[in-house]
Amino acid sequence: MRLHKQRLEGKLMNQAQTVTYAVEDGVALIAVNNPPVNALAAGVREGIMECVMRANADAEVDAIVLLGEGKNFIAGADIRRLGSVRPVSTRKSAATLEASDKPVVAAMHGYALGGGLEHALACHYRIASPDARLGLPEVKLGIIPAGGGTQRLTRIAGPAASLDVILSGRHVGAEEAQRLGIVDAIVDGTDLRTAAIRFARGVASRRPLPRARDSAQGIELTEAEATALDAARKSITKKSRHLKAPAYALECVEAALTRPFDEGVALEEARFAELESSEESKALRYAFFAEREAAKIPGAESTGKAPRIRSAAVIGAGTMGSGIAMSYADAGIPVKVLEVTREALDRGMLRIRDTYAVRVKRGSLSQGEMDARLALIEGVQSYEAIADCDAVVEAVFERIDIKQEIFGRLDAVMKPGALLLTNSSAIDIDIMANATSRPQDVAGAHFFAPANVMKLCEVVRGSKTAPETVANAMKMARDMGKVCAVAGSCDGFAANRSRVPMMTEMMLMLEEGATPEQIDKVMVDFGYPMGPFAVNDISGLDVSYEGRKRRAAANPEYRKLHVPDRLVEMGRKGQKTGAGWYAYHDGDRTPHPDDVVKQVIAQVAAEFGIPQRTFTDEEILHRLLFASVNEACKILEEGKAYRVSDIDVMWLYGFGFPRHRGGLMYWADTVGAQAVWQQVTEWHERYGKRWQPGRLLGEIAAAGGALREAKGASL
Ligand code: T1G
């Protein structure tokens, strides 16, 4: 038996010193060290290749381990560098690992994503710690794996699993990865590095080396695999018709089944090259960074260090309150739901139970998971019962006097330092804050309906809210799995306020001759999963009715929206009443155009003498979205949002804006700020005050600049 002496060496001389080489017990350890996530930045691929070659030339090395330093294995290519020239591709460095004459073991912990997992798939063996999260999330960035991932994963895990992983972009846990054959062993109890060396020693003399590229193609598909491929094809045609990446990913997986490895890789390379420079991918990459940027609070750099909420309370068990409570429970955070009357509490708890039961029935939640989540939700009837909670979210209906009273009571009972949050969607945060003796601890946490589904949480800062309170609220929302952006306090805050003009224009266009189905079709063709009228039928036409009445009473210049008002007064409140903008037959959720709506529209037009005309699709799209772009510019110039990209995050996660368009403001830039301003100015002349162009929009247009370069304000 040969003597294995322990030999540690310093960092290898790769440019960025992001890959280190060491030999221990006859095993070469190639470690990627590029914080925070070990992305494959400049020099990393080169470093890996140099180390593999060095280990192969090193007579004292029998086997090789590839691992990541810090919290992760490798989180994939450096997204910021996509679209620019890379001296060495992931394809090449992965191929070098696979070609090694000495066995290479990938030892994964934390995230092994994209090019990171592709490097691992090219290794001869893969082990993982229980916390490892594996995935190929490229389609979420509008690209496909480019390092042989489509070819190797399909050969290793079969086409059904491979398609699921690639098309969903989801993270696969270690256990599932082992079940799928992606991981050979899970290492529990020992440290991964030691276990990897032991594993590598165990396979050091085994030959031939298992190389994914050598696995046979042209395999006969099982019935289940054929069905999975078929389902993927159908789903792509239906759900991803605006996107290229999913269809290309499917094409590459199919190629892995029928073509030699090198041909499959060449196809993957060609498709990736096209996608990398596509508008769809640029927009999706922008959205990735916009989301992360929105989590940063200027002046409160310690956001990441905010404590985790251990217990929460929700006041009000209505639709919003129960949705928020479920969001806590879904994240494993114990939550108390407070309703003073037994009846209201029972109704809320039943709603929660029913919502989970529907998920169990659909198969997206197991009975065990439902029980575990319900066990985290406790109904209570007194304020004293919630006094100890770290955070409380008030979610009762929008009446100032009631909210003031609630915040007074919270102030009296809640422990010092508790986060006092309101889910109000419009009322000034200062009104609630001033009802307490600790306004610095009060902020808005504005969730979007249905709160257990929609990912946005708009954190609203009142004039006295402390930066730490904002940071803590953001941390809480992130721990709940939400995406956050900060807004300043004003009517509607930033998200809804920027959307109201779009809602107004869609109603007013009806009076001028457009139909709900025509407008819905334009927005679906643009990329929304559903048109705004169909969505309004789900949320209920009555939701904004009272608000409009209030605004009309307060402001004589308020432009009334006669069509929705009349529909509500006729009892047409949407799906829940079987009719709204559309008719619904026998509880069916399919919207059918309805002559009654057309008659109401015609009556309003005739009564007010509104001339009728036809609309092009482009006019509809522009009229809806430019109205909101203009309002968003006003929100920014008033300092009610930090950044242009925060508005995009709100639209993506609060309103289902098509992600491949980047967001409202990103999209507006693709049209051009100047063109937007020009049109807004024209409509200002035609329709009057509500189209008054914002100062910021005018300035950017005059300078020939882009909206997304506009400097954000400090709230
Ligand atoms: N490139 C550049 N920066 C990245 C990055 C990446 N791949 N991943 C994360 N960051 C930055 C991020 O912007 C943030 O920066 C910080 O790291 C922490 O991230 C060849 C072509 C790994 C699950 O799509 O999904 O491989 O804001 O706040 O919540 O086929 O980051 O602090 O300045 O998100 O703990 C495929 C993307 C690339 C993974 C960690 N890989 N990353 O989440 O932290 S394409 C991905 C994530 C590719 C190959 C192809 C998440 C995470 P800052 P974070 P987190």
UniProtKB/TrEMBL annotation:
One MF term in the entry's GO annotations: enoyl-CoA hydratase activity
Pfam families reported in the protein's UniProt record: 3HCDH, 3HCDH_N, ECH_1
Keywords assigned: Fatty acid metabolism, Isomerase, Lipid degradation, Lipid metabolism, Lyase, Multifunctional enzyme, NAD, Oxidoreductase, Peroxisome
Domain 3-hydroxyacyl-CoA dehydrogenase NAD binding as annotated: residue spans: 312-487
InterPro entries recorded: 3-OHacyl-CoA_DH_CS, 3-OHacyl-CoA_DH_NAD-bd, 3HC_DH_C, 6-PGluconate_DH-like_C_sf, ClpP/crotonase-like_dom_sf, Enoyl-CoA_hyd/isom_CS, Enoyl-CoA_hydra/iso, NAD(P)-bd_dom_sf
Signal sequence segment: none
Domain 3-hydroxyacyl-CoA dehydrogenase C-terminal: 492-584, 620-704
Gene3D superfamilies assigned: 1.10.1040.50, 2-enoyl-CoA Hydratase, Chain A, domain 1, NAD(P)-binding Rossmann-like Domain
Main location: other
GO term, biological process aspect, one: lipid catabolic process
Swiss-Prot/TrEMBL catalytic activity: a (3S)-3-hydroxyacyl-CoA + NAD(+) = a 3-oxoacyl-CoA + NADH + H(+)
PROSITE patterns for the chain: 3HCDH, ENOYL_COA_HYDRATASE
Pathway per the UniProt entry: Lipid metabolism; fatty acid beta-oxidation
Family, as annotated: In the N-terminal section; belongs to the enoyl-CoA hydratase/isomerase family.
The name this protein goes by in its record: Fatty acid oxidation complex subunit alpha
